[in-house]
Task: structure prediction
Amino acid sequence: MIYLDYQATTPLAPEAREAMLPWLGGPGEAGLGNPHSPHRLGRSAKAAVEHARDQVAALLPDGGRVVFTGSACEAINLAMRGVPGEGPVAHSAIEHPAVRDTARALGACYELPVNAEGLTDPAMPLAPGTRLVAVMQVNNEIGTIQPSARWHAAARGAGALFLSDAVQAFGKLPVAEADLIAVSAHKLYGPKGIGALWVRDGVQLAPQITGGLQEGIRSGTLSPALCAGFGAAAQLARERMAADAAHVETLWLRARELFAGWQLNGSASERWQGNLNLRRDGLDVARLMSDCPQVMFSAGSACASGSGAPSHVLRAIGLSDRQAKNSIRLGFGRYTTVDEIEEAAAMLNAAADAQ
Ligand code: PLP
Result:
């Protein structure tokens, strides 16, 4: 099996797995406590959660707090639904459904277009009264990197808050400036089922999940095991950020040579290089997948690929439905080898040539 779907999820780092094990909490084990219980086991679980919070916070700006959530989707919902005010929400045309669908559910919203490279322009005017601007840092389908600091300034200038969906950037690039930042553990070699929302000091959000309010603005018992895995993954990502990026660049350069006959979707320069979104005229992607079952890759994006609908991101950069359906996404990272890229390219190119 060759795993090339790192935007959908990344493998769990062995270090993160190790950090989780003591907190799974079997009978009689020291890691079984509820971190919200006042007794000794509860307090030690709480200490593990707070240590993990510090490890995650070390990758985020100063002047804010980390609220653990069950996923980045939940973090985004908390941010978008929790921001006070009535004005519209502005979001880029290539946001993840977590942002787009939530903006639509909230009612008044409008899209900020992207150019053919998949890049937004922070010089474009915002509608009067806009209360929240959401522009992701790195796109999950085509990997393009948006000018987040300029968006933050533009939002501030218009009296709006700025939400950065940094899920695909967190642990790989320095995280952008924003008022609210959503992240997810399973995209940086941590466990699935835990995310976080970073909230700038002074930003007030209304809770969306009520109950114990264990996280102040979010209810639910935290999992010390998931927190510990997230924390360890964040610390490792911080230590390895430069080495991981250099490795990804090596993979990218080799992959670009091997797939020279394919068209690249999205900017080549303003891009996280662990994302290769490619198209070939006339390509039948479903057939390619069934002809290359050893290669785990995606058609467009993991979210879009199940639906059969052409990707809204590929449509937004000006591709026709047909071109969008002729596209595949290869995602690679820390644990991918050059040999795997070469083997996958040989299989995919041979199968595509035979169509
Ligand atoms: N935002 C982006 C850009 C993503 O890629 C994803 C996951 O695919 C999410 C949000 C949602 O993350 P989670 O799986 O933690 O809900």
About this structure: The longest helix spans residues 224-258.
